[in-house]
Write a structure and sequence with these properties.
The protein is built from 3 helices and no strands. The chain is mainly α and 109 residues long. The longest helix has 36 residues. The radius of gyration is 18 Å and the shape is elongated. The mean pLDDT is 85.
Length: 109
Amino acid sequence: MNEFILLIFLYLLFLLLSLLFAYRLVRFTKTQTTIYLVLYFFSSYFYYGLIVSSYQYLVELRKTTLDFGHAYVELVLLFFACFFTEIAIIIAVIKKRRKMLTIVKQEKI
């Protein structure tokens, strides 16, 4: 049960950081947005790596017992959840930027 709560907490942490990032990302220039979106896309891989490394540290050095299933199945599912959330947020940012640019172009006319 502790593992489930930990997974929920890790996902909510990723979601909160992603939403804060997306909120700020809309206001950047086109080049900056492109660069940050690519970096954001690869961030889930590093987030997953950080979680797995932390888990291995806890198990090996601290002798903490957390059971994430055979071959970290729950952690892989967390990675997929973060990945799909990431794609949804990227699509939302792109749509919002297009909408903002359309409004700005209409105001100039």
